[in-house]
Design goal:
This is Type IX secretion system membrane protein PorP/SprF. By secondary structure, the chain is mostly beta strands. The protein has two helices and 15 strands. It starts with 9 loop residues before the first helix and ends in a 13-residue tail after the last strand.
Length: 347
C-alpha cells in the first residue's frame, strides 16, 4: 500500500495514517511540511549551522488543515551559532543612515565570502497527527569556507533520535473496527536513530542547497508482536535554490524553488516569492504543485526579533472540510555585535 499521509480524506486518512500499525508496507511523507522554510532553511539543511555571526533562534507552530479533528500540528525549536568565526568588517553596516538603506546596493557590493569557521546547533521538532506523534531531536555541525571572494560553501550533518508514539486511547473511529493486532493498552513508543546531511552554496545574490533527512531507515511496529510488520521510515531529500534581485534601494525580490522527494512518490516542486522592504517588513506567496498555495508576511519588531505568519489553502478535496493551515514563526537574534536585524545569508 502506498500513501501520502498529508493528501488524503479526513475520515479514511486517520485509518491510513495507521498503516504502519498493520502488517503491510507503507511509504509516506513522514516529515512535517514548512510553508516558511525560506525563513529558516536550517530546519531542512544542517549545512546552514552557524552561517551568521550570531546565535539564531527560531520557534514555529503550525496547525495544518484547521477545522479537522486530529489534523497535523507541528511545533519546532531550532538554535545554531558559529564557532571561531572572525568578522573583519571595521564598521557596522546595519544601522540606518539618513538617505541610505542598509540592505541597498552598497551593502551587497561590499559582501564578502565567509571566513572559514565551524557551526553547532540543535533542532527539536514535535509533530502530532491524531493518535500518532513523531518527535525529533538532533544536534548539528557544519563547516563553512569561502571558495571565491564572494562565494561560500558549507557542509553539515545532524545526529540524534526520533520517537514515534501511538496513543491508543485516541483510536476511536466510531463504528469502524480497529485491527485486533494493534497495540491497545496505552501509549507505545518506538525509538530510532536519526541522521541528516547537507551542502549549501551561497553568495550575496543566490543560494543552492541539497539535503537529506531521516537517513537511517528503521522498521516500525505498533502491534502486539505476534505478527511481523514491515512499516518503516524512509529518507527525505530536498533541493533548494534562490536568487536576490535588487529592485531599487528599498526593495529586494527573492524567488526561490524547493524540490522534495520521498520514495516512491513523485518529486514535489514548491515555488516561493518574497518581496522585502528594507529591514522593516516582507510579503510573500508560495505554490506547491498539485497541492496548494499560501500567502505570507513578516515584520521586524526591534533588532533582535522578527515575526512571520503564513496561511495555506489546499487544492485537494480536503478544502471542502478544512478552513486552511496556519503557521507562526518567531525569530530571535542573540549576541550580534553589529545589531544586524536582517540576516545576510539566511534569506
Amino acid at each position: 500500500m502506498t500513501i501520502q499521509t498529508r493528501h488524503i480524506q479526513p475520515a479514511i486518512g486517520l485509518l491510513l495514517l495507521l498503516g504502519p500499525l498493520f502488517h503491510r508496507t507503507v511509504h509516506a511523507q513522514q516529515q512535517p511540511h514548512y510553508t516558511q522554510y525560506i525563513l529558516n532553511q536550517y530546519i531542512l539543511n544542517p549545512a546552514l549551522t552557524g552561517i551568521e555571526n550570531y546565535t539564531d533562534i527560531k520557534l514555529s507552530h503550525r496547525h495544518q488543515w484547521s477545522g479537522l479533528q486530529g489534523s497535523p500540528v507541528t511545533t519546532y525549536f531550532t538554535v545554531h551559532a558559529p564557532l571561531g568565526k572572525a568578522d573583519y568588517r571595521t564598521t557596522a553596516t546595519s544601522f540606518d543612515v539618513p538617505g541610505q538603506n542598509p540592505r541597498g546596493q552598497r551593502y551587497w557590493e561590499s559582501y564578502t565570502a565567509a571566513v572559514p569557521h565551524h557551526g553547532i546547533g540543535a533542532q527539536v521538532v514535535n509533530d502530532v497527527t491524531g493518535a500518532l506523534s513523531h518527535f525529533n531531536a538532533l544536534l548539528t555541525y557544519a563547516y563553512h569556507i569561502g571558495i571565491s571572494p564572494r562565494t561560500s560553501l558549507s557542509a553539515g550533518f545532524g545526529a540524534g533520535f526520533s520517537r514515534f508514539s501511538l496513543n491508543s486511547a485516541k483510536l476511536n473511529f466510531g463504528t469502524t473496527t480497529v485491527d485486533p493486532i494493534v497495540y491497545s493498552s496505552g501509549v507505545l513508543n518506538k525509538m530510532t536513530a536519526n541522521f541528516s546531511a547537507g551542502l549549501y552554496l551561497y553568495a550575496a545574490d543566490y543560494f543552492i542547497g541539497l539535503s537529506a533527512q531521516q537517513l537511517a531507515p528503521a522498521r516500525l511496529s505498533y502491534t502486539d508482536n505476534t505478527i511481523s510488520t514491515t512499516g518503516q521510515t524512509v529518507p527525505h531529500f530536498f533541493a533548494t535554490a534562490g536568487y536576490r534581485f535588487l529592485l531599487d534601494e528599498d526593495f529586494n525580490l527573492i524567488p526561490s524553488l524547493m524540490l522534495k522527494y520521498v520514495s516512491p512518490l513523485p518529486v514535489q516542486p514548491e515555488l516561493n516569492i518574497k518581496l522585502q522592504y528594507r529591514d522593516v517588513l516582507w510579503l510573500g506567496t508560495s505554490a506547491r504543485y498539485k497541492d496548494g498555495y499560501a500567502a505570507m508576511f513578516g515584520l521586524k519588531a526591534g533588532n533582535a526579533l522578527h515575526i512571520g505568519y503564513s496561511y495555506d489553502r489546499t487544492t485537494s478535496s480536503l478544502n471542502n472540510y478544512s478552513t486552511g493551515s496556519h503557521e507562526l514563526l518567531l525569530g530571535f537574534i542573540l549576541g550580534n555585535k553589529y545589531s544586524d536585524a536582517c540576516p545576510r545569508n539566511i534569506w
